[in-house]
Each structure stands twice: as C-alpha cells, then as structure tokens.
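Researcher: I'd like a structural prediction for the single chain below. Treat it as a standalone chain; there are no partners to consider.
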Amino acid sequence: MHHYPRSLCRRLRESGKAEFMQVLLDTHSFLWWIDNDDHLSSTARQAIADGSNEVFFSAASGWEIAIKAQLGKLRLPNGPEAFVSEHLQLNGFRPLSISVSHALHTASLPSIHRDPFDRILVAQSQLEHIAIVTSDPLIQQYQVSIIW
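Model: Treating it as a single chain, here is the predicted structure.
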C-alpha cells in the first residue's frame, strides 16, 4: 500500500507553486496500485505517486469492483464500500461521479470497446480532459490521453 504526503503537494499546487496533471485510474490500475502489483508500469506508478497530480477514481470503477466482489471474481479484505473508501482516503484519490453528460456521451463513442465501465471512463476522460492510467489496448484506441 502506498501512503504519500499528498496533502503537502496539494497545498503547493493550490498556491500555484507546483505543476500538476489530472489522471483517472482505470479499475485495474487502482487495484494494482493498492497491491503494489508489478503489472502497473513505472510511468503509471510515477504519475500516481506524484503528489502534485490530482488522481481521480471513477464511480464506474467503484461499481465494477462491487459487482466483481459480489460475483466472487474479486476477493477483498473487507466489503467493497469499506475497501474503496479506505484506499481513496489513504492515497488522497478524488472520487469522480458519473454525470448524465458522461453517460450520454458514450453514445457518440465508436464501438471499439463493449465494456460499459470502460466506455464511461473514456467519456469521462474526454469530457473532463483527464488522462487515463490504463494498460487496456482498446481504451488506447480512443481519442484520449493515456498514461502507461
């Protein structure tokens, strides 16, 4: 688990003394970060660890984690609500809600990816101008900024 002094960096960013970018974690990247899994690329790891960056976690990923945990496809040390809430707080990640415009924007996306969770992430990335931390080759085919 990673615990970085993101609050200090957030104060620097708010004072205008630090450069930053906004990044959106896909579900795998979030879980790999929590588990310190080698699947997470060094570039992705650096972007997440950089306390001057704003790291977002989508409600779509929370929903995906809840469904996978309920189906027994994802084992968590405690329930999905407690697990996600704890790690958002510990890591200083910001929740990103799904808006009606995010949902409706998925209709204008090419049918590259059929996964509804990933399509929402693409819509959020495009509308909010946030880079996605993902290794998913299908997401990488959309007009989005990728960190990997």
